[in-house]
Amino acid sequence: MEGIPSKMRNLKMNLMLGKLYRISRNNRAAAICYKECLRQCPYVFEAIAALAEMGLSSKEFSLLFAQAPNRGGKPPGDFLDAQRWWNRYVEAQCCIASHDYKGGLDIYLELMQRFPNNVHILLEIAKVETIIGKNEEAIMNFEKARLIDPNIMTYMDEYAILLKLKSDYTKLNKLVHDMLHIDPARPETCIALAAFWERKDERKALTYAEKSLRVDDRHITGYIMKGNLHLSLNRPDLAVTDFRGAQELRADLRSYQGLVRAYLALSKCKDALFTAREAMKVMHQSAKALKLVGDVHAISSSGREKARKFYESAIRLEPGFLGAALALADLHVAEGRNKEAVLLLERYLRQWADDSLHIKLAQVFAATSLLSDALSHYQSALRINPHNEAAKKGLERLEKQMKGVDPDAPEDEDENEADDVDGDQDDAELL
């Protein structure tokens, strides 16, 4: 490819060469090729995404677009209108690349008003919502995209992970089945399979996550899934490598969160704090990054006061951030302030009917022997989300407590055999 003179390269050649340079970590040469792509045609999605991730500003993009010929033959008014919306799309890409997720999401929502039912924009909105923890909204938008195009594969691994987090295994099973029929060789399919198997066989799930990276070693979701599985398998040392791999390609909130969890599991509190602070610097005005710093401080009793301040700052910045509210409630409980924890959670419940809030309240009530109140909240959580595994396990534990049975006593072998039968049934369903 390098043997072809630059003036003789067409759009496809420049795009391929840019991709090859980027894979070989020669970002400077890659940027030159991608810029040439946009001079030839300003509507190359891959080039725009790559240059945004390399730090190109929206103003620099505008200068490149000005050098591109107008081959559409459109009237000036139509061309200017199209160009204005295209510039807004580029601004959104730049926002996301610089971790301004709120700014990027706002622009995408604006574009969605202008171009309703556009699958690409729907998927981009859902991806950003996934990163910032708006899981229900993301699930809804992924489902909308699948209704418009049932064969879509882009970001479907992200959708699979969200369904797994929600414990909606019926929809996850259907999604995996569809993806296997559409294209079993895609890395997204491997990640969806990893999400499916994680509940029953984490090691099998790990083999699928590894397979996704053999298919495409630049698939960021593969590194994040692999890192989370290594954490579940008590291998935080390997998880650090996985999350670092994701960050080398493109750092986002989830890779920072994974790194912090891995370092804390390794008792490397200084590394965890450095990583959390780095996330806070990179993601300005991010409640999630503030909460991450609070999580590190909350590990030690001497750091709880600092943790409280970070959690409260996160809540002030984003009042609807339930993760910070739940963490602050945990902090209250750890310091024996159960009443404050209950008041905080009940205040949030008046505004947000969320299953995680009910579960946390149930746990606090169960810890203070208010078992009937705990029962009520576990039942409320299951009414909101019948698939919630934490609520099911909590309710099962609570029922044992109410019967005077030790909830930590080992289960009978017959029950374990029944679990194995359930696992076999799941295998048959997928096949």
Can you walk through the features of this model?
This protein has 431 residues and is mostly helical. It has a domain at 6-91. Helices cover 74% and strands 0% of the residues. It contains 24 helices and no strands. It has helices at residues 11-23, 27-40, 45-53, 58-66, 76-97, 101-114, 119-131, 135-148, 156-165, 169-182, 187-197, 202-215, 220-232, 236-250, 253-265, 269-282, 287-297, 304-317, 322-334, 338-349, 355-367, 371-384, 389-402, 413-430. The longest helix has 22 residues, at 76-97. Mean pLDDT is 87; it is low at 413-431.
In short:
By secondary structure, this protein is mostly helical. Helices cover 74% and strands 0% of the residues.
Distance between the terminal alpha carbons, to the nearest Å? 44 Å
Radius of gyration: 24 Å
Tell me, briefly, the overall form. Answer: globular
Largest sheet: none
Low-confidence stretches: 413-431
N to C succession of SSEs: HHHHHHHHHHHHHHHHHHHHHHHH
Number of helices: 24
In terms of DSSP E residues, the strand content is: under 5%
The level of helicity is over 70%
